[in-house]
Amino acid sequence: xxxxxxxxxxxxxxxxxxxxxxxxxxxxxxxxxxxxxxxxxxxxxxxxxxxxxxxxxxxxxxxxxxxxxxxxxxxxxxxxxxxxxxxxxxxxxxxxxxxxxxxxxxxxxxxxxxxxxxxxxxxxxxxxxxxxxxxxxxxxxxxxxxxxxxxxxxxxxxxxxxxxxxxxxxxxxxxxxxxxxxxxxxxxxxxxxxxxxxxxxxxxxxxxxxxxxx
Length: 214
Fold this sequence. Notes:
Number of helices: 7
Helix content: 25-40%
Oligomer: single chain
CATH class: Alpha Beta
CATH topology: Uracil-DNA Glycosylase, subunit E
Strand content: 5-15%
Shape: globular
Number of domains: 1
Distance between the termini: 35 Å
CATH superfamily: Uracil-DNA glycosylase-like domain
Strand order of the largest sheet: 1-5-2-6-8-7
Structural class: alpha/beta
């Protein structure tokens, strides 16, 4: 996997032609949207890094802030506030005044994919940015993967064999000479509507993280 030159992709990043074409189409259809790679949110001095799948079309692709403006953020951000990883109120907009505390949020794929489904080549192309993201955080102690794709992307970024660390909700994987890798089902509307993930289950993950990060 090639390492990207910068931590954040350029606004006109062309590493993934399909995603670049989709961004261009969305710029025509939704000219007021962000329609660019979505940068990480939160300070690089944080001990916790949360990694999701990719921006939602009318969520982060609209607002330019991870998990902002879609259902996943409606669960994620109040949970972060509850457990002391954020302060303020989540208002579904990037100017809502919400601030992260000891936490940073990004996605395995920085651009919105068609039907919210990135393909393997896009995940690999964006992997260099995740590598650099991890390397840019000097105090990083825990990475939380939201979903199996994020889990796999993090293991690749850390140079770990995926077969040694199976994804499971609320699993805590000790990585030799690296940060702890924690897993949660993604806080998507689909997962919560189907009961795969409940608010209590999501809170269990953050209870464990708070015990690790007092």
